[in-house]
């Protein structure tokens, strides 16, 4: 099943998400659906709050972001109840986008390396280190389960420059080639 993607302005995107209990029903199916939804929208990551589920789960496939020399080194994985336990290395800037904020791309600075603890879909615990573009995708998705959006990092000036665009997205006045759920429209129903 392909879920509609929840648009900027919906309060679910600003809430810290809840831990998932081990008896959570149909978790594998949800993870499969999240991958399908992510690929359908040509994204490289999708977090559960972006389909209006306030739970600590995200999926990534960083392969499309790999440059020529790193082809094949992308990571496709689901992260359940993740905790970033270390972040280090030099901060580097990269122009990020978000499926919940179509048409907006801005440079965000993040540390180059992370250590993350998480569960896989069989509830095995892992502690892994990632760097470069895969770390970047994880950091962006991890922020989603913490209720943080990449636009939160922008300077006051940048925020003012995109204010109207964000307001339009909230109202559903935006083009995307995937189905979205807009807060202003769903309230009217
Ligand atoms: Ni995002």
What does this structure look like?
- By secondary structure, this protein is of the alpha+beta class.
- It has one domain (5-180): Peptide deformylase (Peptide Deformylase, Alpha-Beta Complex).
- The protein is built from 4 helices and 7 strands, in the order βαβββββααβα.
- It has helices spanning 27-40, 132-145, 156-171, 183-188; strands at residues 5-6, 45-47, 57-61, 76-96, 106-119, 125-131, 180-181.
- The strands form 2 sheets. Strands 2-3-4-5-6 form a 5-stranded antiparallel β-sheet, with helices on both faces. It has a two-stranded parallel ribbon with strand order 1-7.
- A hairpin with a 5-residue loop joins β5 (106-119) and β6 (125-131).
- The longest helix has 16 residues, at 156-171.
- It starts with a strand and ends with a helix.
- The mean pLDDT is 96.
- The protein binds nickel (II) ion.
- The site of nickel (II) ion (NI) has 5 residues, from α2.
Based on secondary structure, the structural category is alpha+beta
Give me the CATH superfamily: Peptide deformylase
N-end to C-end Cα span: 23 Å
Per the principal axes of the C-alpha atoms, what is the gross shape? globular
Q: What's the pLDDT, averaged over the residues?
A: 96
So what's the CATH class? Alpha Beta
């Amino acid at each position: 099943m392909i879920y509609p993607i929840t648009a900027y302005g919906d309060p679910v995107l600003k809430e810290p998400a809840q831990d998932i209990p081990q008896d959570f029903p149909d978790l594998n199916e949800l993870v499969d659906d999240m991958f399908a939804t992510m690929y359908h929208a040509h994204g490289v990551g999708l977090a559960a709050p972006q389909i209006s589920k306030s739970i600590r789960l995200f999926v990534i496939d960083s392969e499309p972001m790999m440059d020529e020399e790193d082809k094949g080194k992308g990571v496709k994985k689901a992260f359940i109840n993740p905790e970033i336990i270390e972040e280090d290395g030099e901060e580097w800037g990269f122009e990020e986008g978000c499926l919940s904020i179509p048409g907006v791309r801005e440079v965000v600075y993040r540390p180059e390396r992370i250590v993350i603890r998480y569960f896989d879909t069989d509830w095995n615990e892992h502690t892994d280190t990632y760097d470069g573009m895969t770390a970047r995708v994880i950091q962006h998705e991890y922020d989603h389960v913490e209720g943080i959006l990449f636009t939160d990092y922008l300077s006051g000036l940048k925020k003012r420059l995109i204010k109207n665009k964000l307001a339009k997205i909230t109202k559903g006045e935006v083009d995307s080639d995937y189905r979205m759920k807009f807060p202003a429209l769903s309230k009217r129903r």
